[in-house]
Amino acid sequence: LKCGARGFPPPDIIWTLNGILISNAKKGYFVAEDGTLFVEKAEHQARLIFKCTAKNSAGSDEKEYTVKTISPPVVTKKGFKTINATEGDPSLLLCEIEGDIPEIYWYKYAAYFSESSEYTVLFTRGRSPSELLIHEERFKYSGHQTNTLYQLAEV
């Protein structure tokens, strides 16, 4: 993070993290000669407030940064899942995610599911799980069939 402070005489730069002074002695942080703060490793799913204060004999000024770390999403229940469905009844499929919730897309044989009279995708941005509601099961083949996440057409 750059402080970007300048003045005459050149200002002293002080960084704080959530109100606590950061120095080069603090593990994971380094303040360069020009006042730039380097963070070695961001904390997982953290929201941190860094403040740069520049002071000299003429006065002081400060700049605040809010840093929110993000992480890749992780599907919590991987692999294929068998779903038993009754013809004519609705079915509900879940995609459970941990981490920062992304946009979630549902596919059948590499074709994207869009909203229609047959399907509804239920998803609130920033929350898990995403749900795919199949309004009425229509069997492609007679008899008992298993359904996996990627083989919806065969249910």
List keywords for this structure.
2 domains, disordered C terminus, three-stranded antiparallel β-sheet, four-stranded antiparallel β-sheet, 155 residues, 13 strands, repeat, Ig-like_dom, Immunoglobulin-like, Ig-like domain-containing protein, 37% strand, disulfide bond, mainly beta, 0% helix, Neural/epithelial_adhesion
Secondary-structure map:
Blueprint: E1 12-17, E2 20-22, E3 29-31, E4 37-39, E5 47-56, E6 59-68, E7 74-75, E8 91-95, E9 97-98, E10 107-108, E11 111-112, E12 119-122, E13 130-134
Antiparallel strand pairs: 1-2, 1-5, 3-4, 5-6, 7-9, 8-13, 10-11, 12-13
Explain what you see.
It is a single chain. This protein is mainly beta. It folds into 2 domains: 12-68, Immunoglobulin-like; 71-155, Immunoglobulin-like, CATH 2.60.40.10. The protein has no helices and 13 strands. The strands form 5 sheets. A 4-stranded antiparallel beta sheet has the order 2-1-5-6, with no helix packed on it. The model is unreliable at 139-155 (pLDDT under 50).
Number of domains: 2
Report the major sheet.
4 strands, antiparallel
Query: What is the global morphology?
Result: rod-shaped
Strand residue content: 35-45%
Q: Which value, in Å, is the CA radius of gyration?
A: 26 Å
CATH architecture label of the largest domain: Sandwich
CATH fold label of the largest domain = Immunoglobulin-like
Instruction: Classify the secondary structure makeup into a structural class.
Output: mainly beta
Count of alpha/pi helices:
0
Q: Report the mean per-residue pLDDT as an integer.
A: 73
Query: What order do the SSEs take from the amino end to the carboxyl end, as H and E?
Result: EEEEEEEEEEEEE
Give the N-terminus to C-terminus distance in angstroms. Answer: 53 Å
The portion of residues assigned to helices is: under 10%
Q: What's the CATH superfamily of the largest domain, by name?
A: Immunoglobulins
CATH class of the largest domain: Mainly Beta
Spatial order of the strands forming the largest sheet = 2-1-5-6
Unreliable residue runs: 139-155
- How many beta-strand elements? 13
